[in-house]
């Protein structure tokens, strides 16, 4: 079982709005003492098998962001090259839109909004770059924000994520959270997909 790190804070907590979501999740990383750099700013952060999920909790409202190499979810990091691959990307988008990235135990969360900032192209053939011994490899990520309404979340400190089970290539999901009681972090896997936001 992975160790869970929790930190307490006396900072005031305000309900995150959609426009302020980036500030909310930046606060999660800052308070947890962890970097917020994404793949575009830090090439070392693009690691296959790993992803970052950040969430801010206030009452029954949860605001989340997910950053993951596309290979973890789709198995490739280029534009779709066939009808089957385009359908696969569409299925992934639908799943990420319809399903909470985290949920209470028992499940009560409902997705109210999902915004994709980056995802693999599903509507065009991929480009091939070959020139002598040169081969250009592209990298892409899924970056998305999600808003949830979770009745009963005020008394439910036990949460789980279906991401590692739904996407087997995602071996480790780093989770960082901020709640009115404090903040913390942990690492989830398919075998250990639950965590607690309270001591």
TrEMBL record:
Signal sequence, start to end: 1-39
Entry keyword set: Signal
The keyword Signal belongs to this UniProt entry's keyword annotation: yes
InterPro entries: ZrgA-like
Residues annotated as transmembrane: none
Tagged with keyword Ion transport: no
Protein name per the record: Metal ABC transporter substrate-binding protein
Region (Disordered): 120-145
Residue ranges, compositional bias (Basic and acidic residues): 125-142
